[in-house]
Design a protein that fits this description.
This protein is mostly helical. It has 19 helices and no strands. About 70% of the residues lie in helices and about 0% in strands. It is globular.
Amino acid sequence: MTVKIIMLVLFFAVMLGVGINCRKHATDVNGFVLGGRSVGPWLTAFAYGTSYFSAVIFIGYAGQFGWKFGIASTWIGLGNAFLGSLLAWRVLGRRTRLMTQHLNSATMPQFFGERYKSNALKIGASIIVFVFLIPYTASLYNGLSRLFAMAFNIDYRVCILAMAILTAIYVIAGGLVATAVNDFIQGIVMLIGIVAVIAAVLSGKGGFMASLSQLAQVSDSSVSDMPGAFASFFGPDPFGLLCVVILTSLGTWGLPQMVQKFYAISNEKAVEKGTIISTIFAIVVAGGCYFLGGFGRIADIEIGAKGIPVGGYDAIIPSMLQNLPDILVGIVVILVLSASMSTLASLVHTSSTTLTLDLIKGHIIKKMDDKKQLLCMRILILVFVAISVVIAIFQFMNNATFIAQLMGISWGALAGAFLAPFIFGLYSKKTSSASVWVSFIFGVGIMAWNLVAKSTLPAVLQSPINCGAFAMIVGLVIVPVVSLFTKAPDAKFVDDAFSCYEETVSVHKSESLGD
């Protein structure tokens, strides 16, 4: 216990130290929100990765989908790496950085407002961001509480308050730069931790081959009659696996807390390096989490009604870790704490800046100078953290839903609404503002339907995971089709927006062979 407490105190001290040290970078709105658009490749890549993977992944998704799909759940992590990281950086990174700077937009709602020349779109998007980031934030606390209860036997509410207060302090103090630096430190912890934990867990079962052999002998007729289904290449439910890959990989393309990382990239080399670093990070962390979760069925865990583990899917990973040596348990706690705090920091930073710049400034408060905007953002960080804490405690005490379902609702609504309008906004001059509204309404509408009356939906869409994946795919069809039949955007305005891609730059021949 002493070792674990010392590790925890050191971790907290470093996080606070970084926040206080980075205050000089958060003295104006540009510094607080975008870090002066000068964040390098390592910080950007790690900020992207650590915002991507949290306790929701390590505790919720790895446990639930490892149980459902077996070793095939590793495909989810690889999808996150190559579709959610590598391809996202290639397709969105450079164009996002160029157009957002050209349009002088610092948030995703602001991008929609400037790109589609619609103040109403900006306001609508900012409301969606605020409302649907809250369930995701609540899910972060829940996942962490499981681990703290196992390692320290600490009351859940104490865990929530400690994590929320610490994160709020360093985000309020240092803004984006403090968040990015802490993300880098937390990312290093995650990389080391996941490798050590996988090695320890599998060695306790006789190694990889022995563990795989045990998994091949597991059968569950309620899931599949195929022998060795949980050790097979695509698992017992390939379609369900595909839906999870789509939601968790393609979904990042439309999440404001992820896409806004591209706004602050410093230069071309940062894009190239960041792409590689981010992909490798995702392979190790996401691939490792889902790989570990795939062996959940051979862990010493009690099975309850309907073949679901006692304590729910969120209890699987903690059960796999509870017999590890104290030093490894301490590493796991810091690992998941790092993952959760980095994501929480990104969420509260995104939400507070979005509400301040896109909803309050110029609408509720007509005149706001830099100091007032910074004060408003910092107050909203506290408000956002407080609301998410209340929801997290209520959800835990009432056992309202699983972690993965909370995340599915949040990701589905945000990515279902924003994914298509954002991509087409970067690549197509013909996209109309009406098509963006239809995408907003459809993405939010179908996820709200799933939340309040899922039994009335077709069976395949009653899962928030499947429904969220469906919302994203349909959005990619809705936007171009609706644009064909609605008022075209002003050609002169759109040409000006896209002119940032046409500017000529000169580079050394070491970077380009030229003609």
